[in-house]
Amino acid sequence: MTQTQTQTQIFVDAVSLIAPAKEHTEPLAKSLATANFTTFPEGWKPSPESIPARARRRYSPQTLLAIQAAENIAPALAQDAAWVFGSAYGEGETLQLILEALRGPTMAIRPTRFQNSVHNAASGQWTIAQSIKTAATSICGADHTAGSSLLKALLQVQLEQRPVGVVLFDAPLPAPLDTSHCLTCPAGAGLALSSRQSPKSFASIAFSLAQRAETRPRTRYAQAALATLNPVFSILPLFEKLAESDAGDVILGLNGGMNLNLEVTLL
Q1: Which of 145, 204, 190, 199 has its CA nearest to residue 24?
Q2: What are 138-196's pLDDT values in tens digits?
Q3: Which SS3 state, helix, strand or coil, does residue 119 take?
Q4: What local confidence, expressed as pLDDT, does residue 70 receive?
């Protein structure tokens, strides 16, 4: 086994999980043990508080997921926090609308539609809504987007000694895009990370790269969630560990032959 280790401790100050089968007000441990993905309310949509109800119609499902996950962790982050947004498939609904327009005789596309089709649309909408002027990075790592985004955030906390908010989000793609990637459930997740321990901190993470297999989920919630094929749920083995009463290692997948080893200590 090959492993590169860093001894820096990164502190976890908040987590967020948004999905149809989970009430976001529930404690993480409870929802991991009880939520059921076999059915969820038809037409379920995220409802971020910072976006007025009427204005939500102008936002894609992906952006609404991202904003709600960001809202849940923002109170645990300082104003100088940076942000990392990760999505495997980005603005699928907006992309489909553009493709349909290009098939028409006029090929007319509204400028705002094109603006909201880019991969950093969600992070842009969040930073504009909150008047955030610090760095916001958008990442796509296919099925390993969760691990890639978390690695970027952990390194940024370590190197810049500033807090970082991590937001993961993906929603089912419209037809015919769904024939290649058939996600059956929308989801968003977030973590507030810091280089300094505070009263809000409930866990610390030491991270490294290792040639070890990914950690498989154990709870019924996480197993059912992964079956929906939404890459956001790859973060659940870490959330399971954060919800437990003992420390241990969690391995998240990365691209390129090495995986992300997370040594979790509960405070």
Answers
A1: 190
A2: 999 889 999 999 999 999 999 999 999 999 999 888 777 777 778 888 899 999 999 99
A3: coil
A4: 95
Q: What does pTM read for this prediction?
A: 0.88
Element (H, E) at 152: helix 145-160
Is the sign of the CA dihedral 192, 195, 200, 205 positive or negative?
A: positive
Classify 106 as helix, strand or coil. Answer: coil
Which element (helix H / strand E) includes 83? strand 82-86
Closest CA to 146 of 225, 221, 58, 41: 225
Mean pLDDT of the chain: 85
Q: Which SS3 state, helix, strand or coil, does residue 4 take?
A: strand
Tokens for 209?
């790269």
Q: How far apart are CA 254 and CA 260, in angstroms?
A: 6
Q: Residue 95 and residue 86: Cα distance in Å, rounded?
A: 17
pLDDT at 184: 83
For residues 208 and 4, give the distance between their C-alpha atoms in angstroms, rounded to a whole number.
5
CA 174/CA 171 separation, integer angstroms: 9
116: tokens are 């909201």
Q: List, for residues 37-93, the tens digit of each pLDDT value.
A: 666 677 788 888 888 888 887 788 888 999 999 999 999 999 999 999 999 987 767
* Whole-number pLDDT of residue 212: 94
Please say whether the beta carbons of 48 and 65 come within 8 A. Answer: no
- Cα(233)–Cα(22) distance, integer angstroms: 13
Question: What is the DSSP-derived secondary structure letter of residue 182?
Answer: -
Contact 198, 242 (CB under 8 A): no
* DSSP summary character for residue 231: G
- Looking at residue 73, the DSSP 8-state letter turns out to be H
Here the tokens at position 4 are 């590169």
